[in-house]
TrEMBL record:
Free-text remark on how the cofactor is bound: Binds 1 zinc ion.
GO biological process per UniProt: proteolysis
Record keyword Hydrolase present: yes
Family stated for the protein in its record: Belongs to the peptidase M3 family.
GO molecular function: carboxypeptidase activity; metal ion binding; metalloendopeptidase activity
GO CC annotation terms, alphabetical: cytosol
Name assigned to this protein: Peptidase M3
Record keywords: Hydrolase, Metal-binding, Metalloprotease, Protease, Zinc
Domain Peptidase M3A/M3B catalytic: 235-681
Species for this entry: Methylocella silvestris
SUPFAM superfamilies documented for this protein: Metalloproteases ('zincins'), catalytic domain
Length: 689
């Protein structure tokens, strides 16, 4: 299935000479990745072997820096490939992903299990005090030593071989998991006739009409399982039968019998992860994963989740009571179900705050909110953004912006905002190239990917306030990548502990909510009028609305993640049964569903990144809630000196600093957890409004 083109230049491996040395997307074809991977892997292997076999005694330069410089082509090919797999996939790319996942995993294992290389790293680490390293170099060496030991260096050969097998199998399963979710999402379309549209606001009808037309049902209306389509449908549709049908399909992604069933995949992954942790000497996979985080132990993460769980259950019960009353007032006598919650919460919000989503959306134009995110970055960090139309991208839906400071380029930023069927669901930041200064300044190329619904014909895409928050969130991650100012790739940008990495992104969300930003950028798409002050006030007042629900749907997912991965002997694991058991143990209300159920929990199964780590968002929220108060305390949300410390200690620092020290450098003290409960309205004070 892979074609090689002997003698032909492969654009993936040629020097990229266009603006920002960006990948030449116009020249790259899906069927060229396999050959490019093969060549780049061989190169990387030869480079590693040469470093390991160097007859000179190990030095920081001939070992650590040499490794940091190696594998350049592999980085190029892999970063383009994995970005495209997420954003603009096709059958060829999916096949290459399945083929390459185990091969790349084996390559990674071979690197970490290379005894000669590890011996050099270990010798340097043992002598680290005498090497005259600067603080960043010392941190790089420490990371290398830790990564080697956490990947099995130094273990007996049989254990190392088994770790490599496990890694390979996990990589294949993770790739399949993500593809199955995408397949289930692609396969589903709720087709509506005009009489099925009761309660739906204009923006949703317009996007549903467009979706149906694109999928070959002109004149009808379509709801997909993309969050930007199904969530507003659940919020507004007055057809309980349709809400239930759509919700059940959404909730069952990855759980259908047949070739997209993720249940056996998740079970096998949990089993293999537990085995890996045991080989490395840890009590469970959660213990292994948490050892290299700010939280350090599963117990610390559980303690945090439990500290919000009880007040959130109390708040959610009050919320549910109010929704039940609303339903009763309409003459309904059913108990609120998960497919009713959003619908009645929307009504409740309207009643309590005189606020409805349909009223907010016309003021939240995608283009203006992108400008708002740029504006805040300008005020805080002096960045300017200029759209470039001369840089070929991988899809016409994506946009490129040159990022500069003091007239000098800093980064290339790619924004890919709208949903399409070739894109995975969710929102994320990634890079095509990370920042470093190993051989002169290498500027980063950062991408933000989102799944906002397109607007109706000739109309802008209009966002919900949650969508807008997502845009700011991912842009916060983007800034972490763009402002990175470190020497070594290993410490660049978002290469930090998982429970610290959400701090720069969640902190950035706070600027969206500031009246100063909304007045300037929340402009009506038809009249250009700014959002009325009364609406801004209502929006701010409603910030703590429905936080019992939001906290529980999130925390339940985080607790199920930990309970799956605290399992030391997960033989014959039925992941759905375990999920149900955990939900019963924690007392999950019937009316609320997990934000991500196990069979489609891509954070923890589609790759490794958030496995036993979904709690990280809440951990980082301690930091962002407390951190934003630093600006409030000055009375200026763009306070220059506070912004400078935030830049130096957090956004520019990548992984070059200890996280507690980085936070204290910015804030002047350790974080206080009270701000988190205040932010969510769970601190016992009556809800505002
Ligand atoms: Zn994030």
């Amino acid at each position: 299935m892979t074609k090689s083109h002997p003698g032909e230049a492969n654009p993936l491996l040629e020097p990229w000479t266009g603006p920002f040395e960006a990948p030449p997307f116009d020249l790259i074809r899906s069927d060229e990745f396999r050959a490019a991977f093969d060549r780049a892997l061989a190169e990387a292997r030869a480079e590693t072997d040469a470093i390991a076999a160097n007859p000179e005694p190990p030095t920081f330069a001939n070992t650590i820096e040499a490794v940091e410089r190696s594998g350049k082509n592999l980085d190029k090919v892999a970063s383009v490939f994995f970005n495209l797999v997420g954003t603009d996939s096709d059958e060829t790319l999916e096949a290459v992903e399945r083929d390459m996942a185990p091969i790349l995993s084996r390559h990674r294992s071979a690197f970490f299990l290379n005894e000669a290389l590890f011996a050099r790293v270990a010798e340097l680490y043992a002598n680290r005090a005498k090497l005259g390293l600067d603080p960043e170099q010392a941190r790089v060496l420490e990371r290398y030593h830790l990564n080697f030991t956490r990947n099995g260096a130094g273990l007996p050969p049989a254990a190392k071989a088994r770790l490599a097998d496990i890694g390979e199998r996990l990589a294949s399963l993770g790739a399949q998991f993500g593809q199955n979710v995408l397949a289930d999402e692609k396969a589903y379309l709720l087709i509506l006739d005009i009489e099925d549209l009761g309660g739906l606001p204009d923006f949703l009808i317009a996007s549903a009409a467009r979706i149906a037309a694109e999928r070959g049902h002109p004149g009808k209306y379509g709801i997909t399982l993309s969050r930007s389509s199904i969530e507003p449908f659940l919020q507004f549709s007055n057809r309980r039968d349709l809400r239930e049908r759509a919700f059940r399909a959404w909730s069952a992604r990855g759980e259908s019998d047949g070739h997209t069933d993720n249940r056996p995949i998740a079970a096998e992954m949990v089993r293999l992860r537990a085995e890996r942790a045991a080989l490395l000497g840890y009590e469970s996979f959660a213990h292994f994963r948490l050892a290299d985080t700010m939280a350090k132990t599963p117990q610390a993460a559980l303690d945090l989740l439990e500290s919000v769980w009880t007040p959130a259950v109390r708040r959610a019960a009050e919320e549910e009571g109010a929704l039940q009353k609303l339903a009763a007032a309409e003459g309904e006598n059913f108990a609120i179900a998960p497919w009713d919650w959003r619908y009645y919460a929307e009504k409740q919000r309207k009643a309590e705050f005189d606020l409805d989503e349909g009223e907010i959306k016309p003021y939240l134009q995608l283009g203006k909110l992108i400008e708002a995110a740029f504006y805040a970055a300008n005020r805080l960090f002096g960045l300017s953004f200029t759209e470039r139309f001369d840089i070929p991208l991988y899809n016409k839906g994506a946009r490129a912006f040159e990022v500069a400071r003091d007239g000098k380029p800093v980064a290339l930023f790619i924004g890919d905002y709208l949903a399409r069927s070739s894109k995975r669901s969710g929102a994320w930041m990634s890079d095509f190239r990370g920042q470093h200064k190993l051989d002169g300044a290498q500027l980063p190329i950062i991408v933000n990917v989102m799944n906002f619904a397109q607007g109706g014909e000739g109309e802008p895409s209009l966002l919900s306030f949650d969508d807008a928050r997502t845009l700011f969130h991912e842009f916060g991650h983007g800034l972490h990548g763009m402002l990175s100012d470190v020497t070594y790739p290993t410490l660049s940008g978002t290469n930090v502990a998982r429970d610290f990495v959400e701090f720069p992104s969640q902190l950035y969300e706070h600027w969206l909510e500031q009246p100063e930003i909304l007045r300037r950028f929340a402009l009506h798409y038809e009249t250009g009028a700014p959002m009325p002050e009364t609406l801004i006030e209502k929006l701010v007042a409603a910030r703590k609305f429905n936080q019992g629900f939001a906290t529980l749907e999130y925390a339940a997912s985080a607790l199920v993640d930990l309970s799956l991965h605290l399992n030391a002997t997960p033989e014959d694991l039925d992941v759905v049964a375990l999920e149900q058991k955990e939900l019963a143990r924690i007392g999950m209300p019937e009316a609320i569903a997990m934000r991500h159920r196990t069979p489609h929990f891509q954070h923890i199964f589609s790759g490794e990144s958030y496995s036993a780590g979904y709690y990280s968002y809440l951990w980082s929220e301690i930091l962002d809630a407390d951190g934003f108060e630093a600006f409030h305390e000055t009375g200026d949300i763009f306070h220059t000196e506070t912004a400078r410390r935030l830049h130096d200690f957090v956004y520019a620092a990548g992984g070059s600093r200890d996280y507690e020290a980085a936070y204290a450098g910015f804030r002047g003290r350790a974080p206080s957890p009270e701000a988190l409960l205040r932010k969510r309205g769970l601190d016992g004070a009556p809800a505002e409004g």
